[in-house]
Specification:
Helix content is about 45%, strand content about 10%. By secondary structure, it is α+β, with helices and mostly antiparallel strands. The longest helix has 24 residues.
Amino acid sequence: MADNHTPEVRHKNMSHIRSTNTKPELAVRQYLFSHGFRYRLNVQALPGRPDIVLPKYRTVVFINGCFWHHHDCGRFVWPSSNEEYWHKKIDGNVQRDKENREKLASLGWNVIILWECQLKKKTAEERLQRLCAEIKNGAPC
């Protein structure tokens, strides 16, 4: 099925999607800071430009949207229009994520992935507590 939007409308829609300072990112950053963790944001020198970098713990955190990074949860559904474009886009994101995790691990970084669905109200507190423990223990998730 073809795209439902003209290229101009699609461009406008896509340009309004944030890649930094999203609500899930802000929530995680606030939680970590309030629990004494100090970090750097979006370090360009590291593969994948991690959302949060904790140099003291040699740990990076990626906060992934379920749709954009194809999480196997109920929040991900393949779009029914312009299917070829979306499969290429999302499959490319997944492959790039995998390569970046491997590069970071080979450089000695612990990589933790947080998913958007894990940061919803019912599960957020438990997942953020576990995140703090993972950072302190240096155990990748």
